[in-house]
Write a structure and sequence with these properties.
By secondary structure, this protein is an alpha/beta fold. The chain has 2 domains: 129 residues, 2-Layer Sandwich (Nucleotidyltransferase, domain 5), CATH 3.30.420.40; 165 residues, 2-Layer Sandwich (Nucleotidyltransferase, domain 5). The protein is 34% helix and 21% strand. The protein contains 10 helices and 12 strands. The protein has a 5-stranded mixed beta sheet. Strand 2 and strand 3 form a beta hairpin. Helix 7 crosses helix 8. The radius of gyration is 20 Å and the shape is globular. Bound molecules: zinc ion.
């Protein structure tokens, strides 16, 4: 069984052909020079033709296209519901008709955090589990939840997606979503530099001398015992652990999977969250597992087959 897969992020689209075990071929289509999705679509079609040629497959050999999109989508209709300054022209775009006319295949669209969960369950850290919460720590905090083997979607396609917007701090920072004190406003790629700049002693810290205040520099300098980096890192861990207890109480998972580039420092993150969860989550049935994602940037690509195989 094979599928065509598109994983569209902020700066590029990964186009790939996957089967149950591996990525058979892939190509990156850059979207850096455009703010729209429409100009990128012909490039994606050309990339798929090259990939099919490389793998000696026809599009009709594939289940269809599983499309992972970095915004809110309605997977029932495969429509893009909400974008955030990038690909704003994608709303109202009929991608199903585009896939049919350009490649002769069906298409299903899903939000990138949900696709990452589907992928990790299919081929990564979530194998064998039906009740999963996945949190992706990056510029923002992505979320997705699966209950009894079904992705949680909800009436407005938002259910389970807003894990990063669970408020963790009453009277905290203003978030981009409109709420206050969200996990994302308190510990994410975009909020970290803002928080660091206001931190007592920041100007004298080694962190202030870095080119960029991000999770990479934060975790590196915390490991080197820079006091400001240590304090900020521990604050991030506390925010993520608090949000995780909220997510466990909301969705009743067996396992919580953490993804995102910061998981290169999983050793500094997961034990803290695991012990906080064991102490503070109300789970009389046993212990929720806290694990790192296994598929890295490929998780969304591996979501294509399970998405296309879902029962309507
Ligand atoms: Zn928010």
């Amino acid at each position: 069984m094979q599928a065509l897969a598109i994983d569209l992020g902020g700066s590029h689209a990964t186009c790939a052909i996957v089967d149950e075990r591996s990525i058979l071929a892939s190509e990156i289509v850059t979207t850096d020079g455009t703010i729209g999705l429409r100009p990128v679509l012909p490039e994606i079609v050309r990339a798929f033709h090259r990939l099919l040629e490389q793998t000696h497959l026809k599009a009709s050999d594939c289940l269809g296209i599983g499309f992972s999109f970095c915004g809110l989508v309605d997977s029932r209709t495969s429509e893009i519901v909400s974008t955030n300054q990038k690909y704003d022209d994608a709303r109202g775009l009929d991608l199903k008709t585009w896939a049919k006319s350009e490649l002769g295949v069906r298409l299903r669209l899903e939000n990138d955090a949900r696709m990452a969960l589907l992928g990790e369950r299919y081929a990564g850290a979530g194998r064998g589990f039906d009740d999963i919460v996945m949190t992706t720590l990056g510029t923002g905090i992505g979320g997705a939840a699966m209950i009894s083997g079904k992705l949680l979607r909800g009436k407005h396609a938002q259910a389970g997606c807003l894990g990063g917007h669970i408020p963790v701090l009453f009277g905290g920072r203003q978030c981009t979503c409109g709420a206050i004190g969200c996990a994302e406003a308190e510990a994410s790629g975009w909020s970290l530099p803002l928080i660091a700049r206001e931190w007592p002693g920041f100007v004298q810290s080694r962190l202030a001398q870095e080119k960029a205040v991000n999770f990479e520099s934060l975790f590196r300098l915390a490991k080197a015992q820079d006091p400001v980096a240590l304090a900020l890192r521990d604050r991030c861990l506390q925010v993520w652990a608090t949000a995780t207890v909220g997510l466990i109480h909301a969705y009743d998972p067996e396992i919580v999977i953490f993804g995102g580039g910061v998981m290169e420092s999983a050793d500094a993150i997961l034990p803290h969250i695991q012990s906080y969860v064991e102490k503070h989550a109300w789970t009389p049935w046993g212990k929720v597992k806290v694990r790192a994602a296994e598929l890295g940037n490929s998780a969304g690509i591996f979501g294509a087959i399970p998405l296309l195989s879902e029962e309507a």
